[in-house]
Design a protein that fits this description.
GO terms for molecular function: nucleic acid binding; zinc ion binding. Residues 211-230 are annotated as: Disordered. Keywords: Metal-binding, Zinc, Zinc-finger. This is CCHC-type domain-containing protein. It comes from Cylindrotheca closterium. This protein is mostly helical. It has three domains: 1-49; 62-146, no CATH class; 164-218 and 232-283, no CATH class. The protein has nine helices and no strands. The longest helix has 44 residues, at 18-61. The radius of gyration is 27 Å and the shape is extended. The protein starts with 17 loop residues before the first helix and ends in an 11-residue tail after the last helix.
Length: 283
């Protein structure tokens, strides 16, 4: 919480007569001084106790495995000092399905984390060393999983990760969900990753249609007269609700047989045609 953003301000007097104006100004200063002292006390209390709150959250509400994951985060001693941000990070980890974990993606993220690590301004050197070595162990475990000739596949995965996620998030989710079903559509070369991204972006830029989110084709109309607008509202193809899209659906990892509108997903897959740009289906 940024207490500077909610600091009190000194109100200007509204009276026009000189004596009344001075009296009002004096009262405003007294009120301002009292509010400022209160804000400073709250800020100091928050800074003094946020580490304790953070520790209590981790001790009471997370497993040892989650504790290790959190301490491996590059911003563990900065952003995650804020209990609210800590809870958000815990929620994100809890929603991530282990079945959807892709080794190359985990490898890329592990590299990012260890490169971004910094010792906290008040962090003990021994504690920082232990945190660094824990993250190094994660990276080593991922190294040990790989065979030779994986560098290009790692680059392809990294290329997907650093592209504009505001446009590529649906594609990344599609790859993740499909990987849960033991079908690997992740590209293994940078050129195939580029092809996949280009086709995906062409799909989402197609005017008047959004197959991924479940919009129908626009009514082009025939003959003269105004075409009838019978387009449906965008809806999540997993649960059918219109208040969110499929990438944010809490049920997005359910089996496809339980989806509300699986036809829209099939249409999107046909349009994207993933299997022609680097898919490998296990046999």
């Amino acid at each position: 919480m940024d207490y500077n953003a909610i600091a009190p301000t000194l109100n200007a007097p509204t009276q026009t007569e000189a004596v009344a104006r001075e009296t009002e100004m004096a009262q405003n200063k007294i009120l301002y001084s009292a509010k400022l002292d209160e804000n400073m006390q709250r800020s100091a209390y928050f800074k003094r106790n946020k580490r304790t709150v953070k520790s209590n959250i981790m001790l009471k509400f997370v497993t040892k495995a989650m504790d290790i994951k959190l301490q491996g985060e590059a911003d563990f001693t900065t952003t995650l000092e804020n209990p609210i941000e800590l809870l958000k990070r815990i929620e994100r980890f809890m929603k991530k399905s282990a079945d959807a974990e892709y080794d190359f993606l985990d490898f890329w993220e592990a590299n990012q984390k260890i490169f971004a690590m910094k010792q906290g301004t008040t962090e003990n050197l021994m504690h920082f060393k232990e945190r660094f070595l824990r993250q190094a162990e994660v990276l080593q475990d991922l190294y040990d999983k790989f065979k030779d000739d994986i560098f290009e596949a790692v680059l392809a995965t990294g290329f997907l990760c650093i592209c504009d996620q505001t446009r590529t998030a649906p594609l990344m989710l599609d790859l993740q969900v499909t990987y849960c079903r033991e079908v690997d559509y992740y590209p293994k070369t940078v050129s195939k990753a580029q092809d996949m991204l280009k086709i995906h972006m062409d799909v989402i830029k197609n005017p008047g249609v959004n197959l991924y989110q479940g919009k129908d084709q626009p009514n082009k109309g025939k003959g003269k007269g105004k075409p009838k607008d019978d387009k449906k509202e965008a809806a999540c193809y997993v649960c059918g609700r219109e208040d969110h899209m499929s990438p944010k659906c809490p049920d997005r990892l359910l089996p496809e047989i339980q989806w509300k509108n699986p036809k829209h997903y099939v249409d999107y897959r046909k349009k994207l045609n993933l299997n022609q740009i680097g898919a490998t289906v296990p046999t």
